[in-house]
């Protein structure tokens, strides 16, 4: 086979749009984040549960953006029984199925948390992925606004436990019942209007990103984005559009003033006034617990894009000042959200089960913490394994024995398995971010010794000697020790550098 023909048979190495590979640094940082989140969720009395990434498509129900097209918004396929399966779109619908399926054996209220990847069959873009990590906490079986208030308080505590300072975040709260009152006022209160209501919800949900004019376009005929793609709008009249916009901008300088403004907007709607009363109850409980409106704030622009929410809805919004690599300001906005979904479990049991939940978008929050250089997601620059170099390839068993001693002592270590010489092996250790290497040639082996080279100290000395003669008296970066003292010497190096 000639070279050109062989090249034509190669598979192109490429990642699908909207997906991302993760390296060791990100994986370690996210694990640290999940531990911090889990600590607060457990502090509030939530227990862990895990559901699979696949569900029967019918179990997702109205959770789907479009029930008539299973692949619209979700990734779906048929199994060998011709049953439709879908990758989970979020973690809430699988929880509803789990609760209904195990109803008799679960305590009520049922308080659980779970983390995992979710999948969206949507157009990817900056900060919008087709696979991303979420971490949820939910209470099922309580209709009290206290359950919603507790989630808002827990969300605030979680962000602070992740290193987000007060003043750099806000938990914004609204109530879908108030929006239902607005929908009734503009003639979209009937069951036949469900599709248009969903378009309105999703339009309002984009207020933070598109601004009032962009939302007006989506509430009207539609909007063309920067790429030229056109999104069909809700087709509302100009009067109805302005009424919806007035609702979204009803936030005032204090929570009490916001409640007054909302009461005026939905005064003619019993359902809308019920929503206002629930907001007042949440605000009272949060304030009594020490969460003032700089931490938990009422904001009518928060609606959440999914249709299953039935009452209070909330978002965790970041206002951290940061800039990208080009120095342009970054606004992260929402890094989590949730709300009450009292009707979701009724699909399985025929009766409503009051439920409320909050979800942190771990992937988005990680990007925010990374942008502000949070210590929580910063790994030490030298946290790779100790590398045992191979000088004599016919004595590989001896080197493996040295590696074994380090591992038995709990020291992360590896044997160099390549075929390069010492100089290349040292470069390999640098790329592995190794704090030190073990070197043993035939002379050292005969004496029962090894050379331990401190790569961190060596790098510092190499930089300083050229400009400061005092470094000539510094501790040597390479020392000889007996094989029996190798572990102790390595540990001393690790401790010296805080590893």
TrEMBL record:
Transmembrane segments: none annotated. It catalyses: tRNA(His) + L-histidine + ATP = L-histidyl-tRNA(His) + AMP + diphosphate + H(+). Its main location: cytoplasm. Keywords: Aminoacyl-tRNA synthetase, ATP-binding, Cytoplasm, Ligase, Nucleotide-binding, Protein biosynthesis. GO terms for molecular function: histidine-tRNA ligase activity. It is found in: Cytoplasm. Gene3D superfamilies: Anticodon-binding domain, Bira Bifunctional Protein, Domain 2. Pfam families: HGTP_anticodon (PF03129), tRNA-synt_His (PF13393). CDD domains: HisRS-like_core, HisRS_anticodon. The keyword Ligase applies. Its EC number is 6.1.1.21. Residues 33-380 form the Aminoacyl-transfer RNA synthetases class-II family profile domain. It comes from the Bacteria. PANTHER family: HISTIDINE--TRNA LIGASE, HISTIDYL-TRNA SYNTHETASE. Homodimer. Belongs to the class-II aminoacyl-tRNA synthetase family. This is Histidine--tRNA ligase. The gene is hisS.
